Amino acid sequence: MAKVTKVVVPVAGYGTRFLPATKATPKEMLPVVDKPAIQYVVEEAVAAGLSDVLFITGRSKRALEDHFDSSPELEAELSKQNKDELIKKVKDPADLANIHFVRQGTPQGLGHAVFMAKQHVGHEPFAVLLGDDLIDPRDYVLKKMFEVQENFGGSVVLLMEVKPEEIHLYGSAQVEKTNDDAVVKVVDLVEKPNQKDAPSNYAVIGRYLFNPKVFEVLEKTKPGKNGEIQLTDAMKTLAKDISPAEGGGLHAVIFKGRRYDTGDKLSYLQSVVQLAVEREDLGPEFKKWLKKFTGELGN
Ligand code: G1P
Asked: Which of 34, 187, 219, 227 has the fewest CB atoms lying closer than 10 Å?
């Protein structure tokens, strides 16, 4: 199978959970410590060798385009002041990868957003990374997903066990064991089910490796949950109705690492604290303060 080099990152969502912060700023640009959340996602892709990044954007996402572009005036100003370290910080996002953009026009769901990548991706397998899911850099998992794709073919998704009362926020998968404890075969999927209808507490996390067959499937996928074309429904078809010989089949890696939903306020705050604590420049001082502060909070 061809090596995966392209990654699709849908970023056309409105970010209503973070209003008013997201009124004029894309939610993906909210900082986690001092980097926009979306930069962590691109860094994760690049660390796994994916250097061709296609953003599926929409209206009001200009700041995101500017972030991954060069900024000659700012660089010139910093250069006058000999601030080399800051120049690097300004240049890094633009130098990280080959960034491309496609606009979604009228957003019709995540499945529709991924379908917009068809022409750019062509007939190669590719990755999809969702901007809201931030995987802690210490727990990167894409390389393990590549291994699974090599061993089993078809497509691969990331699953994580969540509390039963949280499964309605995610795609939920029915799975069967394989010889590898960390890998399962996906036999069915439901997008955001009620707790009582969920096939399991295994939730889809926004990391996917797709066989290009998914484009054919998406083209025929009818609107599902919330009247949107759901990626989960297309994955269900790949898992259930298409033979491995035709590019079907779906396996999953079970993730046990640290993952934050930066689209959720509580999880966003946790991501900021956890990543700040690990930082060499901020960690020691911040930890000292945090201990004192939590002590003052008591129980
Ligand atoms: C999307 C997917 C869902 C998945 C989730 C992971 O939902 O539709 O299947 O579990 O991402 O973050 P969203 O959170 O965009 O509503």
From this structure: 227
Q: Which residues form the domain of 10?
A: 6-263
pLDDT tens digits, residue range 7-50?
999 998 888 899 999 998 999 999 999 999 999 999 999 999 99
CA 54 / ligand 1 centre spacing (Å): 19
CA of 204 to the centre of ligand 1 (A): 7
Q: Is the CB of 134 under 6 A from ligand 1?
A: no
Cα of 255 from ligand 1 centre, angstroms: 16
CB 9 within 8 A of CB 101: no
Residue 106 lies in a domain: yes
In a domain, 291, yes or no: no
In ligand 1, the atom with minimum distance to the C-alpha of 171 is 9
Q: Which two tokens stand for residue 123?
A: 């007939």
Tally the domains of the chain. 1
CATH number of the domain within which 142 lies = 3.90.550.10
Q: Is the pTM of this model over 0.90?
A: yes
Asked whether residue 27 is domain-assigned, the answer is: yes
Please indicate, yes or no, if residue 101 is contained in any of the structural domains: yes
For residue 130 and ligand 1, the question of a CB distance below 6 A is answered with: yes
Q: How far apart are CA 270 and CA 260, in angstroms?
A: 8
Q: Residue 15 is encoded by which pair of tokens?
A: 């970010």
- For 56-72, write each residue's pLDDT tens digit: 998 888 899 999 999 99
Q: Which of 82, 155, 148, 85 is nearest to 114 (CA)?
A: 155
